[in-house]
Amino acid sequence: LEAMKAGMFLRKVKSRTWKRQRHYKLQEDCKTIAYKSSWAINSYSTFSISDVEAVRAGHQSEALLSVADEFPADRCFTLVFRGRRGNLDLVAESTKEAQAWIQGIGALMENMENMDESTKLDQWISDWFSKADLNKDGRINFKEAKKLLKMMNVDMNEEHASSLFKMADKSKSETLEDQEFVEFYKMLTERAEVLDLFQDYSSDGQSLSQCDLEEFLREEQLEGEGSYEHALQLIDRYEPSDTARMNYMMSVDGFLMYLTSPEGSIFNPERQDLFQDMSQPLAHYYISSSHNTYLMEDQLKGPSSVEAYIQALKRGCRCVEVDCWNGSNGEPVVYHGHTLTSKILLKDVITTIANYAFKASEYPLIVSIENHCSIEQQEVMARYFRDILGDMLLTNTADSSELPSPEALKRKILLKGKKFENESENPTGEVSDEDEAAEMNKDSPVTESPPTNGKVPELSDLIFCKSVHFHSFEHSRTSAKPNEMSSFSESKARKYSKEAGSDFVLHNTRQLTRVYPSGMRTDSSNYCPVDMWNMGCQIVALNFQTAGMEMDLNDGLFTQNGCSGYILKPEILCKRERLFNPENPEKRDDYHPLLFYVKVISGQQLPKVKQKAWFIVDPLVRVEIFGVPLDQAKQETKHIDNNGFNPLWNETLQFTIHTPELALVRFVVEDYDKASRNDFIGQYTIPFTSIQPGRNPHPSISLHFLYFLI
């Protein structure tokens, strides 16, 4: 850490030809890294250690692999950031310096992860104090405090702000020192709505005893047995005062920490870990699936990268796509054929899959292969899959009447592609719709060496899920084998859902179905996956690299069941004897719609959407319901002018949910703009069945009631 604080020159690498020296140093707070170009004088930029998700030692990126002959692996490392920020590839001057950064950042990350809530809060307040203390004299004056309020996204009346400042200035020095600043912060962040709730359950109006907290857990959070013991655990975990904790009491500060912690989340904790039956056939599960996984950006000219596979697999994706084409020197490559997207080596892709396949989930990974290679390079493909994946690769096709279960296939990789099972079968005749679409791209301006179609037994024998052209639901019902699988474009899947909804649902009780985005989506945009899930389609492939509502829904659905990438479909989509049509949910035998009330109470510390000192957001909350067509709905609160710091809405929204088991609820926070489109601030998506309901204010009516603090 001392070496990091002193600072070092490290090479930032973007490619074989782009290598630049930057000066990196750890700040005194041990939470921030500052960096600048070698030619810059004082203009350091920064990033937080909390933004770093992982440190990878060695040549673990395309950029570092490209300079492997110039810089040895023991001097190279990669910082992987959370969210969608790109990775940072660095080369140190020596092995010792590289180890200092690798071990130092690793230790700081571990330290942050192990902080309790109270320490995190102290650190957060300390950060704000440092930002406000412009002249670094260990105290802030009122002018600095006003700038702080702007930074904290609140447009407070100057007179009120001055009043709070004077109340906190116990030393009457017209400045605030660190502890006085803590008091100023507490007055700023006091949440009247939380204090009212706290006092409703407090016996003495000052604190919650273990019995008081137990009553809150039973009455408001609807907890059952074990709530008394749970109350003690919460006091121990969230109460910042040692004295209160020793007396089994919780202060309002501890109460607020609990409410805004993951334990105060609306997500039912019983559904967060693996809770579903994983022993049913694969066709009974939704499977988190990626389209053209190798792409980092658009479909026409963006980069291909093994990093895209790493990111998808770390998010729990269980079906990735590999498009194989003839490469130079007999090496098959992966890229979007007939386009200007960059090419990566197939062997690097397979090695990455082998390394990351089961880091996020132990359940089977499906690798969907589009094979456009010559016979010679298909033989290379087969060798790579067999040698690199080894025992993880499953090749024996099930002979039973249905597919094996995720449980039976744990830590196995299943290849999906063309499979030729007898001598008379035409290797170019039975292909999926997506293969046909790829073949129709021949008029592209990019020249390709055309693949030589032919039968390569070595590759065909490795295929577990056989790609077949879809003829009709009747043909599938009478002739399809369990391991046969068809791919549909989004438009074709939507057409079948409208024309033959019940038949499509029935088909998906037996066979795996893959849906992929339209070829017109060259910008890597996505279609709404809910329409396909309503039909029971299992492999609904999306462009994972593109943020937006569609990926929010995908992430929301697969957040449950231990983020395993497998979600057991509702019973109405698995029973062959009881046909369900999402277009007419009211016709099912056990039709019981629910009333769903959401009370949006308040928010705190919403981020700015524009980093200008004078800019303050005008937030509103929209609640969106996704599911069967009859359930699609949205409602929103009023917007709050100039307050992203502690907006208070206190509005109740009401919905009718006709098919709860297929519904997803998305909460969206936006910055209202009357002259143009609202700016996105944040969102949270959750399956309706995973919501923990709160106290029902109308006990005579069967309903879900949710109290929502942001």
From TrEMBL:
Region (Disordered): 420-455
GO molecular function: calcium ion binding; phosphatidylinositol-4,5-bisphosphate phospholipase C activity
Membrane topology (UniProt): Peripheral membrane protein
Keywords annotated in UniProt: Calcium, Cytoplasm, Endoplasmic reticulum, Glycoprotein, Hydrolase, Lipid degradation, Lipid metabolism, Membrane, Metal-binding, Nucleus, Repeat, Transducer
PROSITE patterns: C2, EF_HAND_2, PH_DOMAIN, PIPLC_X_DOMAIN, PIPLC_Y_DOMAIN
Gene3D superfamilies: C2 domain, EF-hand, Phosphatidylinositol (PI) phosphodiesterase, Pleckstrin-homology domain (PH domain)/Phosphotyrosine-binding domain (PTB)
Domain of life where this protein originates: Eukaryota
Pfam families xref list: C2, EF-hand_like, PH_12, PI-PLC-X, PI-PLC-Y
Entry binding sites for substrate: 416, 418, 487, 514
Residues bound to Ca(2+) 5: 671-673
Domain EF-hand stretches: 120-155, 156-191
EC number, as in UniProt: 3.1.4.11
Domain PH intervals: 2-110
PANTHER family linked: 1-PHOSPHATIDYLINOSITOL 4,5-BISPHOSPHATE PHOSPHODIESTERASE DELTA-4, PHOSPHOINOSITIDE-SPECIFIC PHOSPHOLIPASE C FAMILY PROTEIN
Name of the protein described by the UniProt record: Phosphoinositide phospholipase C
Organism: Cyprinus carpio (Common carp)
